[in-house]
Known about the structure:
Elements: E1 17-23, H1 32-41, E2 49-55, H2 71-82, E3 85-91, H3 99-106, E4 116-123, H4 129-141, E5 145-146, E6 151-154, H5 172-196
Parallel strand pairs: 1-2, 1-3, 3-4, 4-5, 4-6
Amino acid sequence: xxxxxxxxxxxxxxxxxxxxxxxxxxxxxxxxxxxxxxxxxxxxxxxxxxxxxxxxxxxxxxxxxxxxxxxxxxxxxxxxxxxxxxxxxxxxxxxxxxxxxxxxxxxxxxxxxxxxxxxxxxxxxxxxxxxxxxxxxxxxxxxxxxxxxxxxxxxxxxxxxxxxxxxxxxxxxxxxxxxxxxxxxxxxxxxxxxxxxxxxx
Length: 201
């Protein structure tokens, strides 16, 4: 078939967005590791994403705030600084999010600026959404942009199997795709903006 007169098609290939997936619970027997593995299956095969999984249980961070950063703080700050965006996997503990997650957020500062954050939350009937609402305020203070849609999982209504895998009976897979698409839009837009003009300049 002739395509004479039709302009040649072009394919725009963007550099993959560097997305850090942060597992926020350090509790023994946590559901977060399994939920994070489930979520990663929805993004790991995408060519437009370069993933870095940050499991807070593996980090060595000081319990106090020293005047000079420790090696563990430096390592976390470098990983957060390299990322173009973040997905936070968080449970809801006592109407909010874990202390381990707040501590990790607070020992880093400007590396969060002008970057997008998405959420995968889990818990009881509230599905971790109260933790997410608190985190939105925290990240706003850190000049980060939280995306509108997220993934929320009820651990006690059959949405998660005995192996900790999220079932798609409630549309969790579709929710993950929607959130990731929004996150990547913001990740590329804000990365381009930071390249043109440093944030706050």
